[in-house]
Each structure stands twice: as structure tokens, then as C-alpha cells.
Amino acid sequence: MSPRKAYFKHVPGAPGPLRETVERRVRFEEVDAMGIVWHGRYVSYFEDARVALGRRYGISYADFIAHAVPAPIKRLEIDYVKPLRFEEAFEVTAILHWSDAARINFEFQICDAAGEAVCTGCSVQLMLDHNLSLLYSPPPFYQAFLDKWRAGDFE
Fold first, then answer.
1. Which residues contact 48 (CB under 8 A, 6 or more apart)?
2. What pTM, to 2 d.p., does this model score?
3. Known catalytic residues?
4. Per-residue pLDDT tens for 8-45?
5. What is the pLDDT of residue 3?
6. Is the Cβ–Cβ distance between 11 and 99 less than 8 Å?
7. Percentage of the chain modeled with pLDDT above 70
8. Domains in the chain and their CATH numbers?
9. Which residues have C-beta within 8 Å of that of residue 62, sequence separation ≥ 6?
10. Is the four-CA dihedral 102, 110, 120, 1 of positive or negative sign?
11. Which of 22, 39, 96, 134 holds its CA 20 to 30 A away from the CA of 112?
């Protein structure tokens, strides 16, 4: 599935995006009185894929906590295409786009079992120091991750 719009511009010379997909099924607690997934739940689906990608590539929330680098959400966009329903199977893909800055650019895609778009979106997280001041360059642990990514160690 391709997104309905480009959330991030391609950075010339940057390595390709990193991806991770998780499979889910809609639980009863996630639907509203109409039997469709409540709109606010899609963010938690994005989070499932974001967490899986972080674990896979060594940039999980635990890593940010261990290095005392808060990474709050600066921007969040969601584009709804069609609803999911109770017990429906779906996949969520997190796509990490390259940035030389101390920021994390995630794109998200949710597809139903037929591979059709359900929802797309993006988030931008900024990195802060222990005083909660904005970092202008990636902290050492994240720079090491970027170096491995650029070197192609994740392919």
C-alpha cells in the first residue's frame, strides 16, 4: 500500500526507510457502539508498530530512558480511509524515515486483511536533554544507530 500523501520529503543520499509490521485483530474493547474501532485507538495501533521497530533496531523507549533522552511527540497526523470492525484482522507498519537532526520521523500504514488501506499517519518526535532542552544533534547512542543504518547494517 502506498500512502495517500508523502508525510516526509526524501533526503538525498540518505539510506532507505526502515520498516516493521505487526499483525493485530480488533478486540471488543476497541470498538464503539456502532461496532467500529473508535478513532482514538488508531494511535495505539501506530504505537504497537513503533515499539516493535524500536526493539528490532535497538532504539526502544527503554534505550531512550537508559540514556536520559526524552523524545516527546511534536507532531501527529492521522488520515482515516475506512473503519475497522470487531474481530477484523489487520496489519500496522511503522516506517522510520531518515533525519540527520535529533528527531524521529515515523510514517504509519494500517491495512486490512485484503491489503487495503484503512488508515495512514505520521509522527515526529524531538529529542531533549536531561534539562528538557531541545537537542540539535542526535545523542551518541542514537548517532551510533544512524551510523549503522547509513552503513547498511540493517538490511
1. 22, 24, 92
2. 0.93
3. 32
4. 998 899 999 999 999 999 999 999 999 999 999 999 99
5. 47
6. yes
7. 97
8. 18-150 (3.10.129.10)
9. none
10. positive
11. 96
